[in-house]
Design a protein that fits this description.
heterodimer, A: alpha/beta, nine-stranded mixed β-sheet, 12 strands, 22% strand, B: seven-stranded mixed β-sheet, 6 helices, globular
Chain lengths: 295, 264
C-alpha cells in the first residue's frame, strides 16, 4: 500500500523573504496600535523596496507615517494616525494636507467591524457608528441600510479584505503558532483573518512545546492556519513598544516626527538604509531599558 | 480670596457631570480635566464608576496622574481595546473628551481643519467619536472658549455626531445620542435648550454672559439669572492633591489663574 509522506510544516523565513512576497498595488493590513507593537522591521524593509501604490489599513502610527513620507501609499484606511504619548504623527499630517493619498476615514469601531466582516466572509456588518457624521459624506460607497426586522437605519460597514496582514509577536514556532506577551492583543487576529495571507515577525523562535504553558496559552489569538510565514526580528517593533519587553522610544519618535520634508532623506539614510539598525538607535540594551508607556 | 484655581473649579464642575450617571458607568476620560473630573467623582459620590489605567485594565481606584513613583495600578479586571468597542455598543459609557471644534448641534471635529480633500491642517482622524456619540453619553472640555473652537455653522469635519436632524435618515436621532455638558474656561453649558439647543448652565465666578456670547460662534440659550459655577470644596481640593500630586493641573490654563476672576 502506498503511503503519502507529507512535508512537515516550516514557515520560518527572513524579513527580506516576507517583503519579496509582497506586490505593488496590494492591500496590506498592519497590526498593533499607534506606537505599540508595530512590525517596524517589516516596514523598514518595505521602505527599502520598490513596492508602491499600496492600500494600507491600520490603527496607524509611525508605520503609516513612514510609508506616507516614502510616497508608497495610494489609499489609507484608518480611524486615526497617532504616536500615542506624542499625540500627533507629523509625517501623516504633512502627507494628508498635500492630498498625498486617497483616504477611507472611518470610526475605530467601524474599522474592526470591517475586518471582522472580511474574516467571516460577510459582505458587511451593521452598526450605528457613522450615522450623523461626515464619515458618510466622505465615503459615499458606505451604505445606510434598514434593519429587516424593525426598520431602524444602520450603517453597513463593508468588509475590509486584505491581501496581506503584517503583525509583530513575542514568540513563534515553525508551524506559525504565536504568543503575544503584552497585555493587549489589539486586533491582530482580525487583521490576520481578514487577509489572504498573514506574515509575522517575532522577537524569537521557540519550540512548539513551550506554548504548552498556562501563562502563554491564553494569549495566542492568531491560529497558525492564518500564517504564511514568520521571521525572527528581535526588537523588531522599535521604535514602537513590545510590552512587556520594551517600551516606546519617545526620544526617537520625537526626532523622527521632526524629520519631515528635507529631514526625511537623512532619517532614511540613518535608520532605514543602515546596515546595523540596532547600533544606529542606541543598541539592544538601550531599547530593552525603555520604560513601558504610562497614560 | 479664593483658595482654588480656575482649573480646580473646572475639574469639580466636570465631576458633577457624573451626578446624572448610572452607578457603574464606564468613563472614558481624555485629557487632564476629564481624567481628574472622573477620578474625583469616583473618589466621592460614585465609587462604582468604572475606569481604566489608560490602557488595558479596570482599576479599583483612579491612577494618579504624572510620574507614578512606585505606585502600581490596583487592577480589578481587563478592558483591552476589543472589549471597549463591545462595551461602547452596549451603551453604559460616558466619553468626556477634548475635541478641537464643536458647533451648535454638539457635533465635534478631531480630523482636519479646512477642506477635507486639501486641509489646512490634519489632526488625528475621527478616532472613536462617531461610535461614542451615537451610543454613549458625551461631554466636552475646551481650555479656550473662542469662536475658533465653538464655531459658527458646522464644524469643518463632523467626526462626532450631534443634534442635526438633517444628517440622519428620516431626521430621527439614534437612541443612544445623548450629549451632556460642555465645560470651558468661561462657563458650563448643557444641551437642555429647546430641541437640544446648547444652554449656558452656569458662569464661572466673575465671568459675564456677554463675554461668553462674544466668544461663541452660535446663539446660546440662557436664563435672565444664570447660576454661578460652584467652587470646589476643601474635601475635593484635598482629593485632587492626591490624584494630581505633581500639580499638573496648574498647566491646564496659561498662568494658572485663580478660580475667581480678577483675584490674581
Amino acid at each position: 500500500m502506498k503511503m503519502n509522506t507529507y512535508p512537515s510544516i516550516d514557515k520560518r523565513l527572513s524579513v527580506k523573504d516576507i517583503v519579496a512576497q509582497l506586490e505593488s498595488g496590494m492591500t496590506i493590513g498592519i497590526g498593533g496600535w499607534g506606537a505599540r507593537r508595530k512590525p517596524m522591521a517589516l516596514i523598514r524593509e518595505i521602505l527599502k523596496s520598490d513596492l508602491t501604490d499600496l492600500t494600507i489599513a491600520a490603527y496607524g502610527g509611525c508605520d503609516v507615517g513612514m510609508l506616507a513620507s516614502a510616497g508608497k501609499i495610494k489609499k489609507l484606511i484608518f480611524g486615526f494616525v497617532s504616536l500615542d504619548s506624542v499625540p500627533m504623527e507629523d509625517h501623516f499630517r504633512a502627507a494628508r494636507v498635500q492630498n498625498g493619498f486617497e483616504v477611507m476615514e472611518i470610526d475605530e469601531g467601524m474599522f474592526q467591524l470591517g475586518l471582522k466582516a472580511a474574516a467571516q466572509n460577510l459582505p458587511f456588518l451593521p452598526c450605528r457608528a457613522g450615522l450623523g457624521t461626515d464619515v458618510l459624506t466622505h465615503n459615499p460607497d458606505i451604505k445606510v441600510i434598514q434593519d429587516p426586522y424593525h426598520g431602524e437605519y444602520l450603517v453597513a460597514v463593508p468588509a475590509i479584505k486584505l491581501d496581506v496582514a503584517l503583525c509583530h509577536v513575542s514568540e513563534a514556532d515553525q508551524l506559525g503558532n504565536s504568543f503575544i506577551g503584552g497585555p493587549d492583543v489589539f486586533f491582530d487576529e482580525w487583521f490576520c483573518r481578514a487577509a489572504d495571507k498573514a506574515f509575522l515577525t517575532t522577537e524569537k523562535f521557540v519550540e512548539t512545546s513551550s506554548f504548552d504553558d498556562d501563562a502563554k496559552i491564553m494569549r495566542m489569538p492568531i491560529e497558525r492556519s492564518l500564517v504564511a510565514g514568520v521571521a525572527e526580528a528581535p526588537l523588531g517593533a522599535h521604535p514602537t513598544s513590545n510590552g512587556p519587553d520594551y517600551g516606546i522610544d519617545v526620544a526617537h519618535l520625537k526626532a523622527y516626527n521632526a524629520a519631515t520634508g528635507d529631514g526625511w532623506a537623512d532619517y532614511v539614510k540613518s535608520f532605514v538604509e543602515t546596515e546595523d539598525y540596532l547600533d544606529a538607535v542606541g543598541g539592544a540594551e538601550h531599547i530593552r531599558s525603555l520604560p513601558l508607556p504610562i497614560f | 480670596m479664593s483658595n482654588f484655581s480656575l482649573a480646580e473649579l473646572c475639574i469639580a464642575a466636570g465631576a458633577e457631570i457624573f451626578q446624572d450617571e448610572t452607578p457603574e458607568v464606564f468613563a472614558t476620560l481624555i485629557g487632564l480635566v476629564p481624567r481628574l473630573a472622573g477620578s474625583l467623582a469616583k473618589k466621592t459620590f460614585l465609587p462604582g464608576l468604572m475606569m481604566s489605567d489608560g490602557e488595558y485594565y479596570f482599576v479599583s481606584e483612579p491612577v494618579p496622574v504624572g510620574p507614578r513613583g512606585g505606585y502600581q495600578p490596583k487592577r480589578e479586571g481587563q478592558i483591552g481595546y476589543e472589549r471597549v468597542f463591545d462595551l461602547i455598543a452596549k451603551g453604559n459609557r460616558h466619553a468626556f473628551v477634548g475635541p478641537v471644534q464643536a458647533d451648535r448641534f454638539g457635533q465635534m471635529n478631531l480630523s482636519v481643519i479646512g477642506n477635507y480633500n486639501k486641509p489646512r491642517a490634519a489632526l488625528l482622524g475621527v478616532r472613536g467619536f462617531p461610535g461614542n456619540t451615537v451610543n454613549n453619553r458625551t461631554s466636552m472640555f475646551f481650555a479656550s472658549h473662542n469662536t475658533r473652537a465653538l464655531v459658527s455653522g458646522e464644524v469643518d469635519m463632523v467626526s462626532g455626531a450631534g443634534y442635526n436632524r438633517d444628517r440622519y435618515p428620516v431626521g430621527k436621532f439614534p437612541p443612544g445620542l445623548d450629549h451632556r455638558r460642555i465645560i470651558t474656561n468661561l462657563c458650563v453649558m448643557d444641551f437642555e435648550g429647546a430641541d437640544h439647543a446648547i444652554r449656558v448652565r452656569s458662569l464661572h465666578p466673575g465671568v459675564k454672559i456677554e463675554e461668553v456670547i462674544e466668544n461663541t460662534g452660535f446663539d446660546l440659550v440662557y436664563a435672565d439669572t444664570i447660576a454661578e459655577t460652584p467652587a470646589p470644596t476643601d474635601e475635593q481640593l484635598a482629593i485632587l492633591q492626591v490624584l494630581d500630586p505633581h500639580n499638573l493641573r496648574a498647566t491646564i490654563f496659561k498662568g494658572n489663574p485663580a478660580g475667581i476672576r480678577g483675584e490674581d
